[in-house]
Prior knowledge:
By secondary structure, the protein is of the alpha+beta class. It is 49% helix and 18% strand. The chain contains three helices and three strands, in the order H-E-E-E-H-H. It has helices spanning 2-23, 75-108, 114-123, and strands spanning 31-37, 54-64, 67-73. Helix 1 runs antiparallel to helix 2 (75-108).
Amino acid sequence: MAQSKAGADRLKAQRRIAREIAKIGYALPGTLTVRAYRCGKANCACHGDPDALHGPYNYWTRKVGSRTKTRVLTDEQLEDYRQWLDNARRLKELVAELHELTVGIVDADTRGLRADRKRAATKGSAPQRSSQGASR
């Protein structure tokens, strides 16, 4: 009974995760950074006054293969894409939860473990290896 309860709980969790994933919509990978900076001109006002920094500039950064890609976004794009970035973060969380659930199922499955094989061998249900025909 406990096994079927655990199985029902796992199925319920899997279905909840699937429903949440189905609601997500667009998912934009990467990170958003808003940054203001000092330029390289020594006589620019940005060097003397912290309120005179250049920017702020909106950067979207992501990995493509082994490379980092960065794109400057307008304020309008930042507002449009922020939800997509939040969606991508939530999607990663849900996939990690699904992975954890699935690994838990596999970890709980004792079929094929050495203890099971030893028990089967002591009961005589496991086939015995023959030493005949072993040489080549």
